[in-house]
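INFO  loader      accepted 1 record
INFO  loader      residues=336
INFO  predictor   begin
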Amino acid sequence: MARVPTAKALFALVEQLETLAYPVRQVHRHPAAPLLAIWLDGPHENPEPLAFIADLFLLGGGWVLLRTVLRELEASRGRARPARVERLGQLPGAYVPELFTVSHGEDGTVSSLVPSPGFPWPIGLDGGAPFRTDPATSPLRHPRSALARLLGEAAGPEIEAARIREGELVRLRFAVGLTPDEADAVAGWIRRLRHLLVVRWRDERRLPPISVSLSCFVPRPWTALQWVPMLTEEALKERLSAIGRELSKIPGLTVTHDLPKWALLEGVLARGDRRAGELLLAASRMGWDRARFVHPLNPAFVLHRERRKEECLPWDHIGWGIDRDRLWVEYEGAGA
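INFO  predictor   done
INFO  writer      dumping tokens
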């Protein structure tokens, strides 16, 4: 059982399976081989690029779903693999990708993804993944009206300043890659926060150190920005450089940032359909710079185009209780 929330974790899993001589592709495994389950924490993680590797996806559910799956596995012990996975595919919170058929249109987009007769549509459950050890932290992002609200903007500088104690390291995270004025907006936000701290303590020598982390924005499933295109690697590098130049003018800051190359891999994992799995596997073996040029799937098709409202997205078949039409209304209202 594994959790694969990032491209780096996927590469590590592939390496581990190959070290164990356990076939990476599910179709190459012996029928008696142990089942490989991948646990997804919630609706913003996309199972489809990992369908080539997983016998089973667990969609949230926490410890309750784990106990249910273990009981089912115990009850089906000794049965043939097809019978075991078919029984698992009937459980709420379980998704067996081989029981679903994917079709593509002439334009390369997913046209349909439907279950085999007699099997239910997969349903995501509350509870997350029980083995999660990295607590989720909401990035602080600069204000920008409706778009900022969609990004889950945290409390403003005034509230954050009231929580900061003297000498405490202040960690700020900003998502980069959505709006053209990010350099000025991020620097302005931090200047206002720093001014509030100066007013509070009346002495710059008492100001806490400020660490700024810049992450590249990756559109995620089941968010109002799931239709938006991701910036290219070159554009992300330019944005990061521009913000870095502005922040270098502010004393007392340390700045770190994502590598755009890894952000693009995260984008393929977050937005791709089942064809993207082979691209990610190639990247794990030959590196991203080579894989994206030799693989038949063009990464730009996955990453850098805006989705249409009527397009069937690779994760639309999984029910998480989220209203897709409401997300579209929010997306249009954000002016993204």
